[in-house]
Amino acid sequence: MQTYIKKADESLVELGYTEHSFAHVGKVANQAQDILLKLGYGERTAELAKIAGYMHDIGNVVNRVDHAQSGAIMAFRILDKMQMDVDEIATIISAIGNHDESTAVPVNAVAAALILADKSDVRRSRVRNTDTATFDIHDRVNYSVESSNLIIDTENKYSILELKIDTKLFTIMDYFEIFLGRMLLCRRASDFLKLRFKLVINGVELQ
Fold first, then answer.
1. Which one, of 31, 35, 18, lies nearest residue 143 by Cα?
2. Which domains, from first to last, does the chain contain?
């Protein structure tokens, strides 16, 4: 598993993508688990979300295109060889296969938590290009996010993504040009979890 994550990220380096290595998958795994625990799901369901989060990007070792589906098939083979319960395998691979915004659907709670955790991981430290003069719009947007924080407000039934952005490097409209699809997906995932999604950029609420 470690090798697949490492090699998948090496492929993305060559393609010029942001970091998808252990920092990303570790954060997504812990966040996905935490989301479900805060919402009162059982510990095992939350653990399945953590497993799905850790494995969700291994398909990039095959190709960036359709990596969610190839990653789900890879995860099936790995977990099946470990003799994991078939019902749990089905939950994990459906979440992995439905996490990428081009084809994603929050088909279950694990998938919804994975989507929220994955799409909210926007941060400067994921940008690997050190030459700001050659940044494309994806680099500029990610680099401009000085901090991001996903809050699960169980009392008021909100999922809140708070971003602090340096607007000297890009405009808010640039953010939406790149990430509108991801934010709409976060809203659909939140809906599945009976939450309302709220985006807060530099203290301004966008719902």
1. 18
2. 2-206 (1.10.3210)
Candidates 125, 132, 130, 134; CA nearest to 19 is: 125
Return the SS3 of 1: coil
**Spatial separation of the C-alpha atoms in residues 192 and 196, rounded to whole Å:** 10
Q: How far apart are CA 132 and CA 67, in angstroms?
A: 28
pLDDT at 207: 64
Where do runs of H (alpha helix) occur along the chain?
2-15, 22-38, 43-55, 67-81, 86-97, 109-119, 137-144, 172-192
| Residue among 32, 185, 159 at smallest CA distance from 101 | 185
Residues 6+ apart with CB under 8 A from 69: 59, 97, 103
Select from 10, 20, 77 the least CA-distant residue to 53: 20
- In tens, the pLDDT along 17-64 reads 888 999 999 999 999 999 999 999 999 999 999 999 999 999 999 999
Contacts of residue 128, Cβ cutoff 8 Å, sequence gap at least 6? 13, 18, 19
Paired with 164 in beta bridges are 147
- Rounded distance between C-alpha atoms, residue 162 and residue 70, angstroms: 32
- Between CA 46 and CA 100 the distance in angstroms is 20
